[in-house]
Amino acid sequence: MKSKVYFTKDISSKGLVAIYDALNVELKGPVAVKISTGEPGGHNFLQPTLIGELAKKLDGTIVECCTAYRGKRFDVANHHKAIEDHGFTKIARCDIMDEEGEIKIPVPYDGHLHGYNIVGTHIANYKSMLMLSHFKGHAMGGFGGALKNMSIGVASRNGKAWIHSVGKTADPDAMWGMLDDQDGFLESMAEACLGVVNYFGKENMAYINVANRLSIDCDCDSNPHEPEMADIGIFASLDPVALDKCCYDTIMNSTDKGKKSLVDRMLKLHAIHTVDTAEKLGLGSEDYEIINL
Fold it and tell me: 275 and 248 in contact (C-beta within 8 Å)?
């Protein structure tokens, strides 16, 4: 059977709740709501006014991890300040999952990551996770959606280095000299996703991609390019592979002339390879059907 991907053009708090309800899933509490809280200076991240109602409905905790690059979210204190300054503490509990350390979780695959993913210790505080992602471009992965949020996003600071370096180092400073294997990096992201899904169980995860503010740059960029194509809508699925593939296809097939720079970035960085690898690892299917709300 084809995986179901739900879609609404209603990019609002009401539309976000409606598309979550369409998934017909009951996430067990405590629920982690994984978002990008956004690098200070940037402004494309999902806004608290958009996600607040859904976070409240789930009684969810917004979760993040520290970054591997030395920006404003590299250390815990500054990261907490960024989360507060961006308004997230006003809508929900917020938790930096690696602020008290990290653990290794199994990746049941003999690949680049040598059988383990590195995540924050606070992951143990949650029974389920909603991957609430801003779909947009990315300077290293080509695009960021559910799979990137689940891999790089859930990884601890050192875990991010582990993925970016294709399992060569867990040192965030050393990793910058080990970024020459693009496909290996994309495959490592898919492997990291397998670790997270294996940890929680497929039945305890759900995925939403909000395709608005479609910059070619990630929310980790403090000075992102302005979007060149129009907002699309909100996509949701219980299958992260189908979800990211659907968003990718929607942009590739769009008639919006402003898509060119985003399409070029995705093609140049071979972005779809993450999705292809995730399918091969059993995380979902690229064969999907869209259900319009």
Answer: yes
pLDDT (tens digit per residue) in 190-209: 999 999 999 999 999 999 99
pTM value surpassing 0.85: yes
Largest Cα–Cα distance in the chain? Answer: 47
Segments forming the whole domain that contains residue 129: 3-292
The whole-angstrom separation of Cα 119 and Cα 65 is: 8
Domain total in the chain: 1
Tell me, what CATH number does 91's domain have? 3.40.50
Tell me the angle at which helices 182-200 and 272-280 cross, rounded to the nearest 10 degrees: 50
Structure confidence by residue, pLDDT tens digits, 135-169:
999 999 999 999 999 999 999 999 999 999 999 99
Neighbours of 275 (CB within 10 A): 27
Name the percent of the chain in helix, strand, coil, to the closest 5: 40, 20, 40
Rg (CA), the chain: 17
Strands (E), 31-100: 31-34, 61-64, 93-96
Establish how many alpha carbons lie within 13 A of residue 266's alpha carbon, considering only the half-sphere containing its beta carbon: 26
